[in-house]
Amino acid sequence: MSSPLLSSSKTSGLRGDPVAAPLRLWRAPSQLFISKGHDSYSKKQLLLRIGCKVRTSKEAAGRVLPEDAKKVALPSAAPPLSGDGGGSRQESGRVPVGNQKLGSAPLWVPLKRVRKKILALLSNLPLAIGEMFTIAALMALGTCIDQGEAPDYYFQKFPEESPVLGFITWKWILYLGFDHMFSSPVFLGMLALLAASLMACTYTTQIPMVKVARRWSFMHSAERIRKQEFSDTLPQASIQDLGVILMGGGYEVFLKGPSLYAFKGLAGRFAPIGVHLAMLLIMAGATVSATGSFRGSVTVPQGLNFVVGDVMVPNGFLANPIGAFDTEVHVNRFYMEYYDSGEVSQFYTDLSLFNMDGKEVMRKTISVNDPLRYGGVTIYQTDWSISALQVIKDGEGPFNLAMAPLKINGDKKLYGTILPVGDLDSPNVKGISMLARDLQSIVLYDQEGKFVGVRRPSSKLPIEIDGSKIIIEDAIGSSGLDLKTDPGVPVVYAGFGALMLTTCISYLAHSQIWALQDGTTVVIGGKSNRAKLEFPEEINRLLDRVPELVGVDDFVSNLTTEQRSLDSSSP
Predict the structure, then answer these.
(1) In DSSP terms, which residues pair with 451 in a beta bridge?
(2) Nearest partner of 363 among 355, 373, 371, 353, judged by Cα
(3) Which of 12-26, 39-53, 349-363, 450-464 has the highest mean pLDDT?
(4) Which among 54, 85, 223, 281 is placed 20 to 30 Å from 60, CA to CA?
(5) Which domain holds residue 526?
């Protein structure tokens, strides 16, 4: 590499100077450069400053030197020659020594240092593991604490007098937003911190590793090749034949003179980046779901309807209404299926959806784990109840008697109503009590509370109680529906799909092989980031297929031996 002196315009004109002496001189008005052999000693140059006036020793002894003249500056390299020999700051690009400011640095230098420190801190593996454990703990806490309840609920369940686990009270839950855990600032902040750690790790570790893996790195030293995880030697072989065999084994092969480089499984190096991106997708989708969704729940009796937008409540500051909120939902029918023991096994709701013009746009019967999806709104079947009984009394009716839920021990459901009998204006009105656990049977009691009998709805079988003939015409059920819009679900699904794919790809081994032709010997070495046991076995199988080189003398000798054996065997 030539020095700046020899690459200047003036110097380029002097290169053709036919000077035969080993020492060449280039003079400038105030500088003298001496170079031994321009091509071989261009880096060793001597700079001599020549004064304008020669002084005698007497004059020099009687003269007081200025303060700045007592200092000698030794430059580390020769400055470039300027066009006129004077050399200004603009022409040479150098700042005079007297005008330099010590300790000053460009503004971006400390910023780069701060950026490096931040990236090193965020890409720390223990920090990322701690973030994931914290997020997992918050998610577990969110499943233990009932979400979305009224403040009074937390006042009663988490009082200050008896904290749960010794410290969890309603103040912790409400102040930290743990009543809406997955949209709380603490949870979203931890997601953002983990996302920053993943991006920092990708930028500082994974991307540089991929760049290094993509380079064609030839080795020109047999000693370096023998220091690899696997090494071997083929005494009579050709590196070209080895390349052909490796190509047949699925390797990408590159030859440069006597050196060979081959690799396969480079996709395994890209997989960690894909894993990080997939995790970022999942967290982004979860954030959108937590801050940009609508949720609502409603219990609708059979035959009635509701408007989607009337029951939806925003779940975050990014939530925006959509066009499907104007859709009207009509419950055509609600019914249940039962086990042989009489327990409810499944319940169904036949729904019809109507647009603003009253036109039916969709109809579907939903059940548990089989929701209805329309225009970004998902309607789930989640619960049921009994809203009313249709009763005929003494041939009159039917009368709709509202059913009320009754509190009982356990998770069983029980609904009840009363049919007034006698004087309705009396303050002590008595009646016939009716209880139901489901839609398939109704239990009846007289005015004294004594059991009378059981009737199935729509059986048309009358029962006489206290002088009145009662027929249970029908039991009207109510469908419990949950509605939601969740724009983050597709993003989360895409993230999990990418995570599974990239996790499988990450198990692909990235294998590298180097080889060097040393005479008739080929030195081979290689390594793999995975498959430490399988890699040597695979290479040995490939090396066994490399043909052995046979010299001319050996070939003639083999032919002579075969000819003699044939002659001796012939009669």
Answers:
(1) 445
(2) 353
(3) 349-363
(4) 85
(5) 222-265+509-551
189 shares its domain with 321? no
Single residue among 437, 470, 485 that ends a domain in this structure = 485
The label of the residue with tokens 């321009």 reads: 38
Contacts of 519 by beta carbon, 8 Å cutoff, 6+ apart? none
Mean pLDDT of 203-213: 84
Q: Where are the beta strands (DSSP E) in 355-467?
A: 360-367, 372-374, 377-393, 396-402, 404-405, 415-421, 430-436, 442-445, 451-455, 463-465
Say which residue, 6 or 150, is predicted with more confidence.
150
| DSSP designation for 42 | T
C-alpha to C-alpha distance for 167 and 173, rounded to whole angstroms: 11
Of residues 13 and 262, more confidently modeled: 262
Q: Is residue 569 part of a domain?
A: no
Coil, strand or helix at 540: helix
Local confidence band at 75 (pLDDT 50, 70, 90 cut-offs): very low
In a domain, 411, yes or no: yes
- Please tell me what DSSP assigns to residue 481: E
Residue among 319, 322, 327, 346 at smallest CA distance from 335: 346
End-to-end CA distance of the chain: 77
Residue 479 shares a structural domain with residue 513: no
Compute the mean pLDDT over every residue in the chain, rounded to the nearest whole number: 79
Residues 526, 529, 531, 534, Cα dihedral to 10°? 0
DSSP 370: B
Task: With residue 58 as reference, give the H or E element that holds it.
Answer: helix 57-61
> Which residues, 6+ apart, have CB-to-CB distance to 50 below 8 Å?
30, 31, 32
Give pTM, 2 decimals: 0.62
Specify the higher pLDDT residue, 148 or 559. Answer: 148
Last residue of a domain, one of 485, 517, 539: 485
Q: Where are the alpha helices (DSSP H) in 93-237?
A: 108-122, 125-144, 151-157, 170-175, 185-201, 207-214, 222-226
Dihedral-angle region of residue 430 (phi above 0 means left; psi in -120 to 50 means alpha; beta otherwise): beta
CA distance 512 to 437: 71
Strand partners, 434: 417, 444
DSSP characters over 220-267: --HHHHHTSSEEEEESS--HHHHHHHHHHTT-EEEEETTEEEEEE-TH
3-state SS track over 269-332: HHHHHHHHHHHHHHHHHHHHHHHCCEEEEEEEECCCEEEHHHHCEECCCCCCCCHHHHCEEEEE
Q: What is the pLDDT of residue 58?
A: 41
Residue 498 included in any domain: no
What values do phi and psi take at 403, rounded to 5? -100, 135
Q: Note whether 187 and 151 are same-domain residues.
A: yes
Same domain? For 315 and 258 the reply is no
Cα dist. 361→306, 312, 373 in Å? Answer: 15, 20, 12
Q: Return the residue matching tokens 């500051």.
A: 317
- For residues 525-537, give the mean pLDDT: 90
- Return the structure tokens found at 17: 């100077």
Instruction: Indicate if 318 and 455 belong to the same structural domain.
Output: yes
**CA dist., res. 101 & res. 118, Å (int):** 29
C-alpha torsion angle, residues 520, 525, 531, 536 (rounded to 10): 40
